[in-house]
Design a protein that fits this description.
This protein is an alpha/beta fold. About 45% of the residues lie in helices and about 10% in strands. It folds into 4 domains: about 5-140, 3-Layer(aba) Sandwich (Rossmann fold), CATH 3.40.50; about 175-325, 3-Layer(aba) Sandwich (Rossmann fold), CATH 3.40.50; about 330-410, Helicase, Ruva Protein, domain 3, CATH 1.10.8; about 420-485, Orthogonal Bundle (Arc Repressor Mutant, subunit A), CATH 1.10.10. A 5-stranded parallel sheet has the order 2-1-3-4-5, with helices on both faces. A 5-stranded parallel sheet has the order 7-10-13-6-14. A hairpin with an 8-residue loop joins strand 11 (about 280) and strand 12.
């Protein structure tokens, strides 16, 4: 018995000990939980079906309830809903052997306090969950009120994974769907950040509104401000008519700002104002518009490091990470690879007409031992390619082509003495990896990164003289003017000496 458990026994009389209701149709489960919880100092009552569980909850005699989803009668989730409808505030922990994302999200939406999966590998974790719930109940903490919404199918894909790490992600999704707090999704490229953003949107009351995604790294910096905020006619060269930005287009819905770490530093104050004041103006306009969408941001960068390097505003960072959700890389949840593989094989058969429906044990071993630097996106591409190209109905190990990324982490980055070509080559490799090994708009992305600092350097060398800068760059002066407008560069002439 732990010191904490001993303290419960010593400081509480039999009548004053916290009470736990255990509802499960398996008598062995009830017996095991009873013995462990009673040894930890709790009083325990049991129920074998949904009706008994509901009656126990309506008695209001229990501090915490452990309720199985699958029980004779309506089932644990319906018991949970009915109890909340009847005003029962007992903290309820859902337990189930069916550890799917929908079960976890639905349980949290219906105001479950926590969610545990069977079989219980460590009963101490169950006791810890009960202790946490008892403490919260004793302090009368006001838990987040999650309303019972219609469970809608995800749009754009399904999140697959029964690992402990993904269960935590599902819990957080369930806790945030019915509020509008800003969410920051953090994780490596390919871990499913947009899928999680879509899950939050389509399982929330905003599901009827638009889901508007913006990749901050894929849009040239000079166009990103207009893309987000919109612009008025005549705001800049080429602005021939008023255009609504993403924030306007997403009224009543959600704006997903992917790769937020690449947001230009000059635009960060404007986004901060949107988050603080819930208002913005179009480029070149004076009208103040109300922000009527939820913001979810995502990044594969370490924003705290970027803040320390003065590349990202600290106040914006804290405004974005009201609720952070960290997505684990695939190498840290290898137990999910089998289910993901089966899902992608089925997808290849359903959507692409692949004839390979099975995967050999050797092929599974090969997939399970790979590091997956591109995470789930790389696994999906690998499995789809194998399913489409394999000559037989079963995918063999030889049919699986793994990328060179598995050993990328061991490849040293260019040092301080690297040539420009080496640095550019490394940056191209980083961009390709960020796209999961499947390049997208590679030329545009690289040009957008190089062009602005190149022009700024030429202007600095030319002391702000555009004619001289155009000559340094080998550009026509009119072309340089267009570039200055596109990148929002304001040349400053050096004062006369």
């Amino acid at each position: 018995m732990s010191p904490e458990e001993q303290k419960i026994l010593e400081t509480n009389g039999a009548a004053n000990r916290p009470s736990v209701l255990v509802a499960d149709d398996d008598p062995a489960i009830r017996l095991v939980l009873r013995h462990r919880l009673e040894s930890a100092g709790y009083r325990v009552a049991e129920a074998a079906d949904s009706q008994g569980a509901l009656e126990g909850l309506l008695s209001n005699r229990h501090d915490v309830a452990l309720i199985d989803i699958m029980m004779p009668g309506a089932g644990g989730l319906e018991v949970l809903t009915e109890a909340r409808t009847q005003g029962v505030r007992t903290l309820i922990v859902i337990i189930t052997a069916a550890s799917t994302m929908d079960n976890a999200v639905e349980a949290m939406k219906r105001e479950a306090h926590d969610y545990l999966t069977k079989p219980f590998e460590n009963l101490d974790l169950v006791v810890a969950a009960v202790a946490n719930a008892v403490e919260i109940a004793a302090q009368a903490a006001d838990l987040t009120r999650l309303k019972d919404e219609v469970n809608r199918q995800l749009v754009g894909g399904e999140i697959i994974g029964a690992s402990a790490a993904m269960q935590e992600v599902y819990k957080l999704i369930g806790r945030v769907v019915n509020n509008d707090a800003t969410v920051l999704l953090r994780g490596e490229s390919g871990t499913g950040k947009e899928l999680v953003a879509r899950a939050i949107h389509f399982k929330s009351p905003r599901w009827r509104g638009p889901f508007v995604a913006v990749n901050c790294s894929a849009i040239p910096h000079g166009l990103l401000e207009s893309e987000l905020f919109g612009h008025e006619r005549g705001a800049f060269t080429g602005a021939t008519e008023r255009r609504a930005g993403k924030f306007e287009q997403a009224v009543g819905g959600t704006v997903f700002l992917d790769e937020i770490g690449d947001l230009p530093i000059e635009l960060q104050p404007k986004l901060l104002r949107v988050l603080q004041e819930r208002e913005f103006s179009r480029v070149g306009g004076f009208e103040t518009l109300r922000m009527q969408a939820r913001i979810i941001a995502a990044t594969n960068q370490d924003l705290e490091t970027a803040v320390a390097a003065k590349k990202f505003r600290e106040d914006l960072y804290f405004r974005l990470r009201v609720i952070p959700i960290d997505l684990p890389p695939l190498r840290e949840r290898r137990e999910d690879i089998t289910n993901l593989t089966d899902y992608f094989v089925g997808k290849a058969v359903r959507e692409m007409g692949a004839k390979s429906r099975y995967i050999s044990p050797e092929a599974r071993t090969k997939l399970g031992s790979y590091e997956w630097p591109g995470n789930v996106r790389e696994l999906e591409n690998t499995v789809l390619r194998a399913a489409l190209l394999a000559p037989a109905t079963t995918i063999r190990a030889d049919d699986i082509e793994l990328g060179r990324g598995g050993s990328r982490a061991a490849t040293p980055l260019p040092g301080a003495g690297a040539t420009l070509a080496e640095l550019i080559t490394q940056r191209i490799a980083d961009l390709i990896e960020a796209d999961g090994g499947e390049p997208h708009d590679l030329y545009q992305k690289l040009v957008a990164e190089l062009e602005k600092p190149l022009i700024e350097l030429a202007l600095e060398r030319a002391a702000g003289n555009q004619v001289h800068a155009a000559r340094i760059l080998g550009l026509n002066r009119n072309t340089l003017r267009k570039k200055l407008t596109e990148h929002r560069i304001v040349p400053h002439r050096a004062p006369p000496t």
